[in-house]
Design brief:
Elements lengths: L15 H4 L3 E2 L1 E6 L5 E6 L2 E5 L4 E6 L11 H9 L1 E6 L5 H6 L10 H5 L3 E3 L6 E3 L4 E12 L6 E12 L4 E2 L2 E2 L7 E3 L5 E3 L12
Antiparallel strand pairs: 1-13, 2-3, 2-6, 4-5, 5-10, 6-9, 7-8, 9-10, 11-12, 13-14
């Protein structure tokens, strides 16, 4: 099968997200200048550079009470800061609850029953007891093709790691089993890993 996205795929559901899988979930927390906290999961997320360490997430769509985007991007535009919280399998239900479309001034931490803690270097809440958190300063916000598509890039200036996730000096994802996004309404979980040596190692 071949299709041109501009002409449609002819299937019952869009296959694009199902092809690009699995995708890590960036559980993005932010705070506006008025002090309202926001927490929302984004599956267009990844690390993009080592030195300095940098991450990105992309937001698509709008909310009626935010000008041309969603709460996360609106908050980050105001403050230049955000936190990425790693999602473990055990947090799948509260992560999903935090994806609800709520008024801008509603705190998703409280709505979903997620315990929060303050970040160390930025004025933002983070998911307490998450396997890891990245405190980020924005480097750029890029407007992408299409309506209300934005990519947010940030430099990681502080890293939290839960002590039980560090095994023999390595951050061991099998200790918490990362949740990943698939296509449609599907998710997957990392329960086992294997190692491949690069040819030049």
């Amino acid at each position: 099968m071949f299709y041109r996205p501009s002409e449609g795929h002819g299937l019952p559901h869009n296959p694009f997200n199902a092809i690009v899988t699995p995708r890590p979930i960036g559980w993005i927390s932010s705070r506006d200048k008025a002090g309202h906290n926001n927490l929302a999961p984004y599956s267009f997320f990844n690390a993009v550079a080592y030195v300095p360490p940098q991450v990105m997430f992309a937001s698509t769509g709008t909310k009626a009470d935010v000008d041309g985007t969603k709460d996360s991007v609106a908050n980050i535009r105001e403050t230049g800061e955000f936190c990425v919280n790693v999602v473990e399998y055990a947090a799948r239900d509260v992560m999903n609850a935090s994806s609800a479309t709520l008024p801008h001034d509603v705190d998703e931490f409280e709505h979903a029953g997620v315990e929060k803690a303050e970040c160390e270097l930025i004025n933002c809440a983070r998911v307490a007891n998450a396997p890891a958190n990245f405190e980020c300063k924005v480097t750029q916000i890029v407007r992408l093709e299409g309506e209300a598509n934005f990519a947010v890039f940030g430099e990681v200036i502080g890293v939290h790691m839960r002590d039980d996730c560090i095994v023999n000096g390595r951050f061991d994802v099998t200790t918490f089993q990362p949740l990943s996004r698939m296509g449609y309404r599907d998710y997957t979980v990392v329960r086992e890993v294997f190692e491949l040596l690069r040819p030049d190692d």
